[in-house]
Amino acid sequence: MDLIHIHRADNVALSRAQLPAGSLVNWRGELLELVTDVPAMHKVAVCPIARGEAVLKYGQAIGFASADIAAGEHVHEHNMTAGAHRPDYAFCSKVPAIDYIETSARASFQGYRRANGRAGTRNFLAIVSTVNCSVTVSRAIAAHFANSGVLRDFPNVDGIVALGHDSGCGMSTCDEGYRTLMRTLHGYIGHPNFAGVLLIGLGCEAMQVNSLLRDCGLETGPLFQALTIQGSGGTRAAVQAGVDKLTEMLPSANACQREAIPASELTLAVQCGGSDAYSGMTANSALGAAADLLVRHGGTVIYSETPEIYGAEHLLTRRAVAPEVAQKLVDRIRWWEHYTEINGVALNNNPSPGNKAGGLTTIAEKSLGAQAKGGTSALQDVYLYAEQVRSKGLVFMDSPGFDPVSVTGQIASGANVVCFTTGRGSAFGSKPVPCIKLASNSALFRRMREDMDIDCGGIVDGDYSVDECGEMIFQRILAIASGEKSASERLDYGDNEFAPWRIGAVI
Amino acid sequence: MDLIHIHRADNVALSRAQLPAGSLVNWRGELLELVTDVPAMHKVAVCPIARGEAVLKYGQAIGFASADIAAGEHVHEHNMTAGAHRPDYAFCSKVPAIDYIETSARASFQGYRRANGRAGTRNFLAIVSTVNCSVTVSRAIAAHFANSGVLRDFPNVDGIVALGHDSGCGMSTCDEGYRTLMRTLHGYIGHPNFAGVLLIGLGCEAMQVNSLLRDCGLETGPLFQALTIQGSGGTRAAVQAGVDKLTEMLPSANACQREAIPASELTLAVQCGGSDAYSGMTANSALGAAADLLVRHGGTVIYSETPEIYGAEHLLTRRAVAPEVAQKLVDRIRWWEHYTEINGVALNNNPSPGNKAGGLTTIAEKSLGAQAKGGTSALQDVYLYAEQVRSKGLVFMDSPGFDPVSVTGQIASGANVVCFTTGRGSAFGSKPVPCIKLASNSALFRRMREDMDIDCGGIVDGDYSVDECGEMIFQRILAIASGEKSASERLDYGDNEFAPWRIGAVI
Ligand SMILES: [Ca+2]
Ligand SMILES: [Ca+2]
Ligand SMILES: [Ca+2]
Ligand SMILES: [Ca+2]
Ligand SMILES: [Ca+2]
């Protein structure tokens, strides 16, 4: 058996299987004896690494030896450490040109053209709660339509989704947490995958329906209605009023038809969750290739999960199209350093137990693997969580790495398709936007076959190249944007994963 | 028309209705002319109050005039301010003795005696998610039972509730936020209102199923089962495994029978939400009387919502049975000062827009009105959020004021009945524990008749005294603990209000 060596400069390689001490593996044509047990997909030193010396993977330092490490020894938390964080940002020093595909050869998909000109990939109706106190009413309205069978008469409507959350009150009305929630609700209310929206509040919450309308410049109309439970006279009256309002929206929503729309109007959110040691070199690299393709077709890619780029953000600042863009990224990094510091959390300690079990040791190692999924395009702009994305090309939207919170922000920002890489296996979906699951290894793909869309594990076995896998992903993006259901849609995910980032104190 | 004057020392009184400037109102037998418009239930100065002078309500300073105020003038944010916060704690200086009711005369209810000796008021099965990633699977399992009709064969089972939340990953595994979530999940898993529990994880999350079992000393068995989605091989397999495990629990759960249990085994959570200017003198005071009665019957009362006692905590430290107990409360107040400070929120700024529209101006005013609902008993102990309550009598459990978050902690701590006062109208329920709604005013009671259990508004009209209303509440607690459904149970609230307090950074 041979090891997987990602970059010629690396002093570690990956074990393809769980191997006991004493195993002999092929290493550059010679036999290397493992001096410790090594779990599958974990790192093995391919030469001696002295205490304090850099551990190199992806050709870059992912951390430092905390003990002398022998050739053939398992390398993980017990003998390496993240080390200090002092990057050289080198703003805009390596901005790649975009190799646009000729206009006549550009791809298109079948989507919904909304009245305001935006392009949708699904045709849902939404019930948006301003506050946890209205979630039961919102879900009761959605359940009415799910159980009554009335939607069978409106086949062009993909469904009615109730977006519930735990916030909206017990918060200041003049801080960052409030503004973040407001941006998130605003982004969903205006999302092109909704034909119509019903907004429901309790009446006395911090996130007032009327404040939301006023501050976001929204006006109600036939396809955007609002009500409160207190104003309706209680639960049953509010449910009935909501059912009536949505019933009135159904014929207009059903009249929406798909039409050909250029792929340049796709906004792809890239995301990873439950990464393993293969994620960086298989699924993330292939998704990066697909992202680069979409950018070449004139589209937009939203790359996020700020804690997961920490330790490798200096590679992004080099690709920023302007110093202001690079500075915005550095500002978000500083914000995160403050946010985690006041909350007593280490920003360089992000790999989850699952990540660690999968062989990832440090945040830099995870970050370099995670960065692959955004591709290699120039960085056009940096956005706040749930801020409306206005650029084409690759952009960064600030968010935590936690999947439901991050994707909620990406969709609020305008993503109309999501690609999600996973090594351990993800149970996630994101109504009203289709989520496409990319397995980093074939064992996972087989084990959770119904939950996964594309197997990127074949890259390791040499079945296809990263670029070929990226092309497969790009074609699947077009097909799913055009109406084909993704795995998580077939499993009806997405009713419980709307999770606005709650910043600040709950009071 | 006369004004409502709560305490003889007060220099403000309350207007019963919206009154325009120039209205003449009765004031101690003389006519007082209103010099400004006054909204219903808002404060009116009954004598001139000079700038800087204390505004007195409940006989205590609720704030200070920020301008000279004339007799007959509306008193609110525009002319008063909260002022500085420097209380004298006077530990244990006023500890009331408990006037226990003779054992032979003590009340009882019909409850469920669990194998470990604890007393339940409902007989649910639970599906508990460790992480947001398993919520869709949990809800799909619950939906299977709700839709299949199979529960009709198990009439003693109140239902199967899926407890979903937004957390469980994107978090440190060694901080306060993690420990808080673990205590919450532990409290629900062991709650006596559950005959059986199925715990579901994804597999790679921060809040690992196995860590939870180990750190909480839990062992699986016929009525406590666990699974992960990754371990089950995906969504459909996990749903099927969950359905099978719960199906096996149903006959045992259905065999549980109610029996007579002393009221001393009731643990009452008191809570308020959407308060108005009447809340303090009607619903909260009456609930306080019921809480005092339960303590006299040997029971337990959990009083919470730390931000809402801020500014009046010195009245509780006086009633603490020991200096250590008083100090624990002061420690939580200090913790809150830090928590709100690092998050840039003012702790003395808690009244929500709804509270303010209802006439409450400062946190002290709200706190004094809120404190009424805990009653007047000695304070036996102070607990962390979701910490298991081991005392009898009145205890304090630290929590935010936000209703779903606070009640989730109270139930995790062991509450088996909830009483919830509201002035603006609440849309809340708390499976597996019945929640009883107390309206602070009769207009609300009529307007949201199906959502409310008891009208406490008659106290203002002289229909019944605070003590008589407290006795009504106590009798209703016994009846509902014995199986009668509360208003929020009839409306099927409680599937969306499980909201563990998320402390700290989302990463
Ligand atoms: Ca939620
Ligand atoms: Ca990730
Ligand atoms: Ca993620
Ligand atoms: Ca309250
Ligand atoms: Ca509350």
From TrEMBL, chains A, B:
Domain SAF: 10-81
SMART domains in alphabetical order: SAF
Record key words, sorted: Hydrolase, Lyase
Single Gene Ontology MF annotation: hydrolase activity
Pfam families referenced in this protein's UniProt entry, alphabetically: GD_AH_C (PF20629), GD_AH_second (PF04295), SAF (PF08666)
Entries under InterPro entries matching the protein: GD_AH_C, GD_AH_second, SAF, SAF_UxaA/GarD, UxaA_altronate/galactarate_dh
Gene3D superfamilies per the UniProt record, alphabetical: 2.30.130.110
Keyword Lyase recorded: yes
Family that this chain belongs to: Belongs to the UxaA family.
Name of this protein: UxaA family hydrolase
Species for this entry: Microbulbifer taiwanensis
